[in-house]
Amino acid sequence: MIVAMQEKATEDQIDAVIDALVESGVNVHRTTGSTQTILAAVGPTAGLDLRKFELLSGVLYVHRITAPYKLAGRAFRPEGTVVEFPNGATIGGKQVAVIAGPCAIENREQIFTIAKCVKAAGAGFLRGGAFKPRSSPYAFQGLGIPGLQLMHEAAQEYGLLTVTEVMEISQIEAMLPFTDCFQVGARNMQNFNLLRELGQIRRPVLLKRGIAATIEELLLSSEYILAGGNYDVILCERGIRTYETSTRNTMDIAAIPVIHKLSHLPIVGDPSHGTGRRDMVPAMAKAAVAAGADAILVEIHPNADKAASDAAQTLYLDQFEQLMGELRVIAAAVGRTL
Length: 338
Ligand code: PEP
Ligand code: MN
Known about the structure:
This protein is of the alpha/beta class. The chain has two domains: 65 residues, Alpha-Beta Plaits; 251 residues, TIM Barrel (Alpha-Beta Barrel), CATH 3.20.20.70. The strands form three sheets. Strands 7-8-9-10-11-12-13-14 form an eight-stranded parallel barrel, surrounded by five helices. Bound molecules: phosphoenolpyruvate and manganese (II) ion. Manganese (II) ion binds next to loops.
């Protein structure tokens, strides 16, 4: 961490800053040039609140030079993380994975029809929510464990892996037999108790970026899971809230290369929540693969416009099949398979 003092900072002010840094447990290296003093703080700075030092008198600015996350940082595993599933499928390798399914599991016929299509299109992961975080308490909240059992059966039938959202700690145990990958939704990205608990299990976790979260906050949230010893974490860009109203969220495609640079964790692009509009999902799915996404997550449904949740952003099955063909071309163009 670097503390730059103002040009007119007095010796007393500089000493007070040095004392505050030392009290925080770091070593301080002082450099005084012809106009300005720079203090380099070396040591355990990860947990320090920079504002504490910014507000001391005589300080011009404070900069971090090491990331506040350690296990999520690229340096921890420069070669990148490949999350492996028991059937041999991977997320983070050369092959771009595809996670597709309804927003919510609705009934047996729906999830079996979708599973068949997901398999036929060449995707490996079946998604579906059984516990739904809905903005309105009056909206469909999901079928719970019985729904998850249906999705698990469908996945078994077609040789697929299941991805589903966990909303709270108490659900984990009951979900384990039916869940190959736990999704943490945008609204729970900073539910630190839930993240800690998911660090204790040995099952992959797909962590979605919060609605108004910075990339650094997403990486710090992943650190909670990694710190528990669960290294199978997959990040997901699903759009953030901005002032733009043409789309449901603003899909931050740039987050994909940024995260690849900062972290070794795989990153998924979710153009369904990223746009909120069926007509824009294919374009943003292709953009995400072109930008280096390790997987794509899309919502699909045989009667998309009648889906119990997120209907407007859900693709019809034939649209999904067409998209898979297009994604293969994009993947090949960027040196990946699909
Ligand atoms: C979902 O995947 O259906 C979902 C609720 O996602 P998010 O948490 O990104 O809104
Ligand atoms: Mn959804």
